[in-house]
């Protein structure tokens, strides 16, 4: 049911998405990309309408996109989107809108505040039960086996960086066997950040000095076979507050259902995960950490 709060959220999402699409299309006109083809929608539904429906689905409360589209979009949202297409045609439009959706999810991270205190972690995204790995076909050439503190899994990984206000600063998706401390992943996540970034022991990397020269200091706990070193009290305090990013992952799993094994194509899975990250930026109350003034 479309309540008044959800109606306001839908309008907020559409206005933001439409502003982004206009700016992005203008940029593409001035800077044409040879590897990027601007999707055409044959004048039926605009790309901003498609993206708005995908992102708003995360706030609808539905757990099945087909039921959401055929029940809410077709009936209750018909006045908001009068130029509707059928469900199967809309799935084709989602595939065409993936480049815009990816850039939009990255664009929402640009609006986050650079506080100088960041937290980094990864979240496993299994695509099937471990007993069905050999029979799984949808992510056959994409997913890989990985291991976390909770055991082995088969799927993908979400690497995320948030600030102490709970706002997403950057993200990336990799296969499940990619290490958290891999140089390419850290460079992509932290290349524009300045300040301190706190993570677990898995982020002890050999590129610490390179990142420090760029202005970002990665702070972690030490392993048992490492020599102990003194740590400033402000870094010690912030390291204990690293659980804020676990709260962000919990929201992505429970509210936006980013982790499930019902995808029937990699394109739909990527659209679902990107829309979950984008929808998180529209949350009014995010988990945050209040840091003392000495942290600066």
From TrEMBL:
InterPro entries xrefs: Tnp_DDE_dom (IPR025668)
Domain Transposase DDE: 112-265
Domain of life: Bacteria
Pfam families the record matches: DDE_Tnp_1_3
Protein name: IS982 family transposase
Source taxonomy: Bacteria, Pseudomonadati, Bacteroidota, Saprospiria, Saprospirales
